[in-house]
C-alpha cells in the first residue's frame, strides 16, 4: 500500500494535476495507479517531499545527476555565472565558459591510436537535439561531397536516442516509436550485441561478434547508401539496460571505416563515468567520428548537449556557399549557465577523484546485486560499472516473462516508494543508477529495499 500523503503533499499534487501534463506518462494513471511525488528539495542522493519524507534517488533523476542534488559547488558556479553573463547568442558571439568547456571536453574525449582525435564541439540544449545535430552533420557532410545517395542511418535493435522525430527514427523501442512510424525517416536496424541473447555455451564476446557479422552483411548490402551508424556504447539504457561486450564496438569501428561510414557514439546516458570509465568507448579503445553528450554533462543541473566531431567532419563544411555550412541552431545553444555547470562538474571529477571512488562503489554494488539476483524471479543481475539491472521473469529464467498485464515493474516501483526508494523500472527490468555520492550504507539499504520490493511485487504471480 502507498503511504497516505500528508496535507502539504496532497495540496501540491492537486494543483499539479490541475495544470501539468507530465512527460512519458499515461496521465490517466495519476495519482491512483501511479503515485505523484511532489518534491520540495534535494539533499545529496535523496529527494525530500513537502512532508519531509525522504526518497533515495536510485535512478539519478533520469540518469542526469552525478554528485547529488543541490551540489554546492555546481550551485555556486551557476550563481556566479548568472551574475556575470546569463546568456548570449552563440552565432557571431563567443563566451569563456563555452570555449573552456569545449577545450576540456576535447582533451578528455576518447582517443584511438592512428586516428585523428575529436577536434570540434557543437552545442545543443538537450540530448535529442544533440542526436539530431550528429545525424544531420553526417548526412550533410556527404551531400557537400556530392554523395547524395548516402541517405540512410544504421542503428541497433533495442537502441534509444531520444524523442524528436530524427532521434526517434534511429530508436527501436516500439512503445515510443510505433505510433509515429509514418513520420519517421527510414533507418536500417541491425541486431543488437546485447549479451542477454547469448546462445548456450557462447561467450559474451562471441555473442557480440556474431552481431557484428550481421552488421558487416548490412553494410555490404547498403554499400554507398549509408552515411552513419549510431549506437549506445556498452549499455543500451532505455532499451532495458542491455549490456554488450566491447568487442562489438571495436568491430563496428573497423567496419564503419572499411565502408567510409561515420560512427556516432551516443554517450548521453553512459558518459561521465556511468560504466566505469569516463566514456564507455574507452573500454573498446575506440574513438568515434561524432560523440553526443548530455544528461550528466552538467552534473544533472541544467540542460545542455555537446556534439564532438573530428576535424575532417568540420572541414567538410568550410566553403564559399552558406548552404554548405551547418546552419543548425537552438536559441539557447551553448548557454553560459549550463557551460559553467559543466565546468564545475569536470572540476569535481578531478577534485574528488570520482572514477577511483566509483570503482569501489561498483564493487559493492556487484556484491549486493548478486544477493538480490538470487531471488527466484530474477532471471539475471547484470552490471556495467555504476549501472546494475535485474531482469524479472516468471520462471526466473530467460524463457517465461511475466504477463505484461500484471505490471510487475510498476508494482515494484510502488513497493520501493513505500520504503523510501525511487526506482523507475523499464518494464520488468529494475535497475540501479545512483548518484556517485551514495555511501555503502545507502547502497546496502537500496539492495534491501529492492529485494523487498521484488518480493512484494511478485507475490501476485
Ligand atoms: C536520454 C537519452 C537521449 C535523449 O536525451 P534527452 O535530453 O532526453 O532528449 C538520447 N540518447 C540516449 C542514449 C539517452 O539515454
UniProtKB/TrEMBL annotation:
Which residues in this protein are found as N6-(pyridoxal phosphate)lysine? 295
The record, for Gene3D superfamilies, names: Aspartate Aminotransferase, domain 1, Type I PLP-dependent aspartate aminotransferase-like (Major domain)
What keywords does the record list, in alphabetical order? Aminotransferase, Biotin biosynthesis, Cytoplasm, Pyridoxal phosphate, S-adenosyl-L-methionine, Transferase
Residues noted as binding substrate in the record, renumbered to the chain? 62, 160, 295, 329, 424
Chief localization class? cytoplasm
List the residue(s) that the UniProt entry marks as the site Participates in the substrate recognition with KAPA and in a stacking interaction with the adenine ring of SAM: 24
Q: Where in the cell is it found?
A: Cytoplasm
The answer to whether the entry has keyword Transferase is yes
Cofactor needs: pyridoxal 5'-phosphate
Enzyme class, one word? transferase
Pathway in which this enzyme or protein is active: Cofactor biosynthesis; biotin biosynthesis; 7,8-diaminononanoate from 8-amino-7-oxononanoate (SAM route): step 1/1
The positions annotated for binding pyridoxal 5'-phosphate are: 127-128, 266, 330-331
CDD domains, per database record: OAT_like
Q: Which Pfam family, just one, is annotated for this protein?
A: Aminotran_3
What reaction(s) does this enzyme catalyze? (8S)-8-amino-7-oxononanoate + S-adenosyl-L-methionine = S-adenosyl-4-methylsulfanyl-2-oxobutanoate + (7R,8S)-7,8-diammoniononanoate
> EC number(s) on record?
2.6.1.62
Q: Does the keyword Repeat apply?
A: no
The molecular function terms of the Gene Ontology recorded here are:
adenosylmethionine-8-amino-7-oxononanoate transaminase activity
- Subunit notes for this chain? Homodimer.
Q: What is the annotated role of this protein in its UniProt record?
A: Catalyzes the transfer of the alpha-amino group from S-adenosyl-L-methionine (SAM) to 7-keto-8-aminopelargonic acid (KAPA) to form 7,8-diaminopelargonic acid (DAPA). It is the only aminotransferase known to utilize SAM as an amino donor.
What family does this belong to? Answer: Belongs to the class-III pyridoxal-phosphate-dependent aminotransferase family. BioA subfamily.
Q: Which HAMAP family match?
A: BioA
Q: What is the protein name for this chain?
A: Adenosylmethionine-8-amino-7-oxononanoate aminotransferase
Where does this protein come from, organism-wise? Novilysobacter selenitireducens
